[in-house]
Write a structure and sequence with these properties.
Blueprint: E1 2-6, E2 27-28, E3 31-32, H1 33-44, E4 48-53, H2 57-67, E5 72-77, H3 84-89, E6 99-102, E7 106-109, H4 113-117, E8 124-130, E9 138-142, E10 148-153, E11 162-170, H5 173-184, H6 196-205, E12 210-214, E13 217-220, H7 224-239, E14 241-242, E15 247-249, E16 252-253, E17 257-259, E18 264-270, E19 274-276, E20 281-292, E21 297-299, E22 302-308, E23 313-315, E24 318-319, E25 322-323, E26 328-330
Parallel strand pairs: 1-4, 1-6, 4-5, 8-12, 14-17, 15-18, 16-18, 17-19, 18-20, 19-20, 20-21, 20-22, 21-23, 22-24, 22-25, 23-26
Antiparallel strand pairs: 2-3, 6-11, 7-13, 8-11, 9-10
Helix pairs in contact: 5-6
Length: 333
């Protein structure tokens, strides 16, 4: 089994953070979102991954090479942002077996063991969850046996609240790419893009049985506010704590927090839901619902619902901030 991970998007909903950092490399609980995904794939036994790259591709490729050197990685440039089907189409020359397709928009918890136990007559799995804001998703309508009958991208009417989350296992890779090619020569969707979900519909219409499977957890990382919510969930789920190599002097700590080795806290109050990465410092600060990148320096600041990039300096600031890497913010706290 191989994997395909589309990474070419610009992450516009996360600007200005993504002006310098690729969206999949933004961190929650001290770890890039992409790393949570790749760790799962490695544990699953996947050794070969096709990365569809574009925006800030050099940073993405360098990070993968450094942190996953044993992974056989193929990098394919998506020059035109023409949708999810367009991205996956670029992987076809590298896929000659069953394939896992993962869109790195969230931290996901699923039972990958379903792949091994999948009935031989099934063509694949679409992981899905019940949502209320169905208009934002591709939603799945099932038949009486529980298999996918239709998938509708961002419907205006509540035909279903079972939303696909961007994680797919496809056993019949040949029919998948036949469906992708058919989609690419059809009329594009509302936004002028070609949707991978139309390729899945093609597969079903040509006799494939695709099974919707439940999601144990899905934590969005596509917007600043959801990134912070995901950070809190992870801190509460075993990724928090104060590292013995951190320095904390005369400060109030309100769990959950993650204070990494080399971080320095003097005075003030930290938490709840605060991550201070390695080398970061917070001197006489009050921080809550805030992520602070490595080697950032904060002084006399009162921040909430903020993300501060690596190597940044924030002094005498108050309120909610989004600060890119290597930036300087000076205010009047």
């Amino acid at each position: 089994m191989k994997a395909v991970i589309p990474l070419a998007g610009k992450g516009t909903r996360l600007r200005p953070l993504t002006l310098s950092t690729p969206k999949p490399l933004l961190k929650v609980a001290g770890k890039p979102v992409l790393s949570f995904i790749l760790d799962d794939l490695v544990q699953l036994g996947i050794e070969e991954v096709v990365f569809i790259v574009g925006y800030l591709r050099e940073a993405v490729e360098a990070w993968i090479s450094q942190h996953y050197p044993d992974l056989l990685a193929h990098y394919v440039l998506q020059e035109v942002q023409d949708g999810t089907a367009g991205a996956v189409a670029l992987a076809e020359p590298y896929i000659d077996s069953d394939v896992l397709i993962v869109f790195p928009d969230a931290v996901i918890e699923v039972d990958y063991g379903l792949i091994r136990s999948l009935h031989p007559g099934c063509g694949g799995i679409i992981w899905a969850m019940e949502v209320e804001n169905y208009q934002r998703y591709g939603v799945i309508v099932t038949d009486d046996a529980g298999y996918m009958a239709r998938i509708i991208e961002k419907p205006s009417e509540p035909v279903s609240k079972l939303a696909n989350i961007g994680l797919y296992y496809i056993r019949d890779h040949a029919l998948l790419f036949e469906g992708v090619r058919h989609t690419m020569i059809s009329e594009p969707g509302k936004a002028g893009e070609f949707y991978l979900t139309d390729a899945f519909q093609y597969m079903v219409d040509h006799g494939s049985r695709i099974l919707p499977a439940p999601v144990e957890g899905w934590w969005d990382a596509g917007k600043p506010e959801t990134l912070l919510e995901t950070n809190e969930h992870l801190l509460l789920s075993g990724h928090g704590g104060v590292d013995p190599g951190a320095t904390v002097d005369d400060a109030e700590i309100q769990e959950p927090v993650r204070i990494e080795a080399g971080a320095v806290v003097r005075g003030g109050r930290i938490g709840p839901n605060v991550t201070l990465e390695s080398g970061a410092s917070a001197l006489n600060c009050e921080l809550e619902h805030t992520v602070v990148g490595p080697d950032a320096r904060l002084q006399r600041s009162r921040l909430h619902h903020s993300i501060v990039g690596a190597h940044s300096r924030v002094c005498d600031a108050a309120g909610s901030l989004l600060v890119t890497d290597h930036s300087v913010v000076e205010g009047r706290a």
